[in-house]
Amino acid sequence: MFVTSIYKLDKKKSLILLDEDIKISLYNSELYKYEIQEQSELSDETSREIFEILLPRRARERVFYMLKDSDRSEQDVRRKLLSSYYPQDIVETVIRYMKDMKYIDDKRYAENYIRSNRKQKSINRMKQELYFHGVDKSIVCEAVDSFEDEWDLLSEEQQNIIQKEFIRRKYDFQGEDERMKNKIIQSLMRKGFHFDDIQSVYRKLKEESET
Q: pLDDT tier at 173 (50, 70, 90 boundaries)?
């Protein structure tokens, strides 16, 4: 492999551009250790050590660090490693290993995401956010369906979010301020709630205010 350019990323690391459009990041101490310089060839031994030992090990350690405090989706892990200049083939190999060992599991991630956010966010909003994190649509639907036994509770929690929005805005159900009502409805719809669900909660709260 031929080193075309070297750019400093910070005080400790540099970006190395190789032929075949390969980019890697190494510590400056490693540049010195492997005698890596611009416009020079990497020896076969150095290439093997970097691409078969050093970078795969470092990528695994990076993923373990990412997973230390919270679960991550496969796509989030992939994006993070690629943005840190790990080569695509190393990234995919590490992700396969992590999936085989169940360190990365998008279904578990989706279920945990719903469990953690269901009291603050609409089901639609959670779905959209899971899609953003790269979770496949079929896995998201499966995760939502896994809460079927708790659906009554989940529905109640979703209704509570809508109810809290009317209460937070101190909506006067007797005064019927249509402008304020429409603002609340639009705000909730932007958060992913269906119009019919909002109306259902609204009617319930209005009836309670009249008793």
A: confident
**pLDDT score for 152:** 55
Distances (CA, A) of 30 to 16, 37, 143: 11, 11, 44
**How buried is 103 (Cβ within 10 angstroms: 0-12 exposed, 13-18 middle, 19+ buried)?**
middle
For residue 192, pLDDT over 80 is answered with: no
Q: Please report where in the chains the tokens 């009291």 appear, as a residue.
A: 119
Which residues 6+ apart lie within 8 Å of 23 measured at CB? 15, 16, 17, 85, 87
Kindly state the helix (H) or strand (E) to which residue 15 belongs, with its residue range. Answer: strand 13-18
Whole-angstrom distance, CA of residue 208 vs CA of residue 203: 9
Longest distance between any two alpha carbons in the chain, whole Å: 84
Whole-model pTM: value is 0.72
> Cα dihedral sign for 92, 96, 97, 102?
positive
